[in-house]
TrEMBL record:
Pathway: Amine and polyamine biosynthesis; ectoine biosynthesis; L-ectoine from L-aspartate 4-semialdehyde: step 3/3. Belongs to the ectoine synthase family. It catalyses: (2S)-4-acetamido-2-aminobutanoate = L-ectoine + H2O. One of its GO terms (molecular function) is ectoine synthase activity. The gene is ectC. Catalyzes the circularization of gamma-N-acetyl-alpha,gamma-diaminobutyric acid (ADABA) to ectoine (1,4,5,6-tetrahydro-2-methyl-4-pyrimidine carboxylic acid), which is an excellent osmoprotectant. HAMAP family: Ectoine_synth. This is L-ectoine synthase. GO terms for biological process: ectoine biosynthetic process. Keywords: Lyase.
Length: 131
């Protein structure tokens, strides 16, 4: 059994802030935990626009606080985001998240991230595996 709190993760190697400062991800479960997925709490700053593309991962996102919009850059379709919204990037869609207010999201990645990944210039995490 694994029990962790976001308080104990704060300001450790599991607490990642984007280089541009627009989001922060607390990585609660990682690949090294060997459970087949990773689980993160991500906070995106109000008034920001964030482009992502998970070419190597499937991501499920559940928004628990805040409002914004999600743009599927593959189709041009936009979706409103609010508490209780969920989106699943099962087709590795390029997408943009517009944060009208601060967004707090709970995210699951498969395959799991190991913790040190950062987005490249295209918003992609590299595929890194645990030995």
């Amino acid at each position: 059994m694994i029990v962790r709190t976001t308080e104990e993760i704060t300001d450790t190697e599991r607490d990642i802030t984007a280089e541009n400062g627009q989001w922060r991800s607390k990585r609660i479960v990682l690949g090294g935990d060997r459970v087949g997925f990773s689980f993160h709490e991500t906070v995106i700053k109000a008034g920001t626009e964030n482009e992502f593309h998970y070419a190597n991962h499937v991501e499920a996102v559940w928004l628990v606080e805040g409002t914004g919009r999600l743009l599927d850059r593959e189709t041009g379709q936009e979706y409103p985001l609010g508490p209780g919204s969920m989106y699943l990037l099962n087709g590795h869609e390029r997408h943009t998240v517009f944060a009208e207010t601060e967004l707090r999201m709970l995210c699951v990645f498969n395959p799991p991230v190991v913790g040190n990944e950062t987005h490249d210039e295209n918003g992609v995490y590299p595929l890194v595996t645990v030995d």
